[in-house]
Amino acid sequence: MGARHFSPVAVIADAHFHDTSADFGFTGINVDGQQLTMRSWSDTRQSTRVFNESADALRAALDQVAARNIRHVVLLGDYTDDGQRATTETLRGLLQDHTHTHGTAFYALPGNHDIFGPQGRHHQKEFLGETGHSLSITSNPAVIDDGVAFSDAMYCEGYPSGLNPMAAFGYFRRPEYLHWETPFGTSDAAEDRVYTATSPDGSNVYRLMDASYLVEPEPGLWLLMIDANVFEPLDGQFERGEEAAFTDSTSGGWNAMLRSKRFILSWIADVSQRAKQQGKTLLAFSHYPVLDPFDGASGAEAVLFGETNVVRRTPVKAVEDALIAAGVTVHFSGHLHVEGVTRRGASGPNLTNVAVPSLVAFPPAFKIVHASMTEIAVETVEMSDLPVNDLISQGYGRESDIRGEQRDPAFTAGHYGDFLRQHKRALVRHRYFVKEWPAEIVAAIGNRPVPDVVSSLVVMDETIPVRFDGLADLPMFELIADWYCLRQGASLALSHIEPERLMLYRSLALRFGRAPGVHDGSLSSFLGIFFGALGLFLDRAEGGAQNLVLSMPTVGDVVPA
After folding, report:
1. Distance separating alpha carbons of residues 359 and 80, to the nearest angstrom
2. Which backbone phi and psi does 352 adopt, to 5 degrees?
3. What does the pLDDT look like over 289-320, one tens digit per residue?
4. Which of 405, 416, 475, 516 is the most buried (most CB within 10 A)?
5. Could you tell me which CATH number the domain at 9-16+51-121+156-383 has?
């Protein structure tokens, strides 16, 4: 008799749902007779995600789920734009409608954009008003002035209020679950799911909620849903529970879990032990990666740019050790909007982290897990072929015209994948160059052709030819944008970058690239490390695959102590 196979599980990460029909108390931009609650392009081009396209992308992903008759969907955190009251309520309705129509069960985890601390957070965002002019909307009545309007619907709730709209999606027990528990027992009451968090000097002590749970949706399949949002109390005097009294969870993740929520690891170890004893197939999920999703390929960033978001959010080796010791073998993560599979422990106990891309960043995709008692196969579903919403593009164009700016090529993109690649170009220009890159490097190479930039570099290997056939005028900026696309997309990026460019990039990496050692501040040193990283990104992309098969431990396997 063959091994039992379970119903497939779709894993959607970082949907960042924003409702372009939301009511935030103002009249949105009118495009062809439709009122749109649109975020501005000026904000979008500085964000690692797009906003207005998220609703269409999520609906398209759910259409794929329905077409494939998938019964279970994991929402791997950051399912909302920023946890706004109105946004979360609309998302609840969308998911409930899908459940009623197709019988789909959703299992949610909070991300750092869904809940911002024990008592929530005010938000102020830039939208496009009826004529296309920018308009700021805030949930904080204390900051209202002539250029800012108020909407209570912009506020993001904390724990447990922020979970309530999503209560039907795993956070609380449902009668159809075969098994459901938390690290604290079998009660699903919020007051029974709290732990103590203390500031370093011991002066501030809080009782905070943890939203982790274990659910068995069908016989033999356990989904371990880990709330890795960590809010660490700070020293000092604060208003009780205010956001400023805690570190932001965004860069904490599993590094902070080791400091503040180690009780979760004990629970994970117990769950893993029971899963093996009872013959359950255990899949672990959290918003944050437990292994470096770039698998070391982004190490050059710390040398070239200092402590970037990617550097700050990379889990330390102790996280790997702790998860392997707890018996976790496969874990799915989001957060960094990256495609990647990272493995540790070639012999003996091992751990694999499957990084799931976002629906609203390049490259857009989600995963489908096909699990059995002996192995899991992970399928990638790309969403790049989706059409671009012409109404949104028209809104962007009107905004640019009003601002006196040239219209971005993204506004005329032929499909969603092309739009997100163009957004990546805009992101390089308006965020990375401004916030991370040394100004003198940008001035020296940003607008020059690639052959001109590399002409003065010391050749690392004379035997490697660099041919610019058809690419003699390729701007260095284009190469830099593709560098970021390869960093984020790995194997999924290859089909979006022209083959002749990929050949050129490989030859440049081989000839000029070097390991990220000491950067002496010179242009040649910078480019050597930069091209070395390009080579690692290409290695990672070419060595990856859109489908993955992993063996699962059997009941007789030894459980780490």
Report:
1. 12
2. -120, 130
3. 999 999 988 889 999 998 888 888 899 999 99
4. 416
5. 3.60.21.10
